[in-house]
Amino acid sequence: MDSKVFEKRTSIMELLSGKRIILVTHLKDIDGVSSAAIAVSSLSPEKVIFSDYGRVPALELLKDFPGSQKGMAIIFTDISLSEDASDVYKELFGKLKSDGDIIIWLDHHPTQEKAVHVLQDFADFAVAGEQNMCGAELLYEEIIKPLGLSSTKIETIKEMAHISDFNISGTPFDEKLRKATKAISSYLDDRTGIQEGLLRISKAIENDPNNFDRDSFVSERAEIYERAQKRLKDELANNTYIVGNDIVKAIVGFNTAGSLQSNDGCYFLLELDKARNGNANTAIYVKVKLGTCHIRVSNKSIDTLLLAQALNGNGHPAASAFPIPKDFVIDSKEGMRKFADFIDGKIKEIYKTEDRIEKTKV
C-alpha cells in the first residue's frame, strides 16, 4: 500500500462553499511555499501555517493549532503523513472534526497503511501518494482549476514548484529557484520569525513569479544562508564515513554547527566522495541540530524509501528523510561513528539482493 495512490473525492465546490480556509503546508522547500503562494493568490486563506514532516511537528500542530470558530476548511498540502505521526494526526483530525471543520489532504509522498486508515476515517477529500505531481500541482489540479480560479500567474507558480520538487535543471527558472531555496533554508537553524518570513517569501512569489528573486526580503534571507554555507561545508567534509555494500554504498556526513539545505548537503557529499575517488551512489546527510537524516542518490534505481520508512521516515524513492533514532546522542566523533555503523547495518539488512533496489520508479 505504501506506493499506491489513495483517493477520497467529493465535490470541492460544495466542501469549500462559504468556508473560511486555513492552509497547512511544508516549511522546507519551494513546493510548500509555492502552495502557499497559490492559495494566497486564489483562496485568500485566513491563515497559512508552515509545518514539517514527522511526529514532532505533528505534536506542535496538535498543541498550537488555532481554534476554529466552527466549520472551517483546513487544507493540508505537501505534508508527508509518516507512520510515526499517524496517531498524532488522528487526534488532531478528531479535534478538527468535532469543531465541524472540513479536512482536505493533498500530498504526493507514498503513504503507508496506518496513515491511509487515518485519512480514510477523517478526511473529507484526500489525494495521497500521487508521485507524478508535487503538492502545489495537486492544489492546482484538485482545487484551483475545478473552482475556475486558474490564472497565468498561478500556472507559472505551479510549473516552478514542479521543476524544483522533481529536481529538473536547464530551465529559465533555475537561478530564481536556487535563490528562493536559499531564502527558505535560512530558517533551518534559527526559526525566529519563520512563519512570517516564509509567508513573505510566498507573497513575493505570488506577487511576481517571474521576478520574485529581485525582492529585497528574498535577497536578504538568501544572503544569510550563503554566509553559512562555506563554514558548514568545511565541517561536513571533516565528518564523513563510508558505509553499505555493493548495492548501496553510502557516504554519511554530519553537520553539528548548523544545517545546509538537504539537496545542497547531500550533493556536496556525493561530489566530495567523487573527488576522493570513491564509489558512493548514495548520500546520507545528518543534520544533528534538527535531528534529521536526508538521503539522495546518484543512481535513481535505488529506492531510498526502503531505508527511510524502516526508520520512521518517508519521502520519494530518490529522495527521502528519517529522524535520528532517540537512542543516539551525536555529540562527538564516537557518536558519529556509532551512528554510521548503525546505518551500515541497516543498509546491509535491507538491501540484500538486486531485486530489493527497485520497488518504485521516479
Set out the fold topology.
Blueprint: E1 6-8, H1 12-16, E2 21-26, H2 30-42, E3 47-51, H3 55-64, E4 73-77, H4 86-98, E5 102-107, H5 113-122, E6 125-128, H6 135-144, H7 152-165, H8 174-185, H9 194-207, H10 216-237, E7 240-244, E8 249-255, H11 262-275, E9 282-287, E10 292-297, H12 305-310, E11 314-316, E12 319-323, H13 333-350
Parallel strand pairs: 2-3, 2-4, 4-5, 5-6, 8-9
Antiparallel strand pairs: 1-6, 7-8, 9-10, 10-12, 11-12
Would you mind describing this structure in some detail?
This protein has helices at residues 12-16, 30-42, 55-64, 86-98, 113-122, 135-144, 152-165, 174-185, 194-207, 216-237, 262-275, 305-310, 333-350; strands at 6-8, 21-26, 47-51, 73-77, 102-107, 125-128, 240-244, 249-255, 282-287, 292-297, 314-316, 319-323. The chain is an alpha/beta fold. The strands form 2 sheets. Strands 1-6-5-4-2-3 form a 6-stranded mixed sheet, sandwiched between helices. A 6-stranded mixed sheet has the order 7-8-9-10-12-11, with helices on both faces. A hairpin with a 2-residue loop joins β11 and β12 (319-323). α2 runs parallel beside α6 (135-144), α3 runs parallel beside α4 and α4 runs parallel beside α5 (113-122). It is globular.
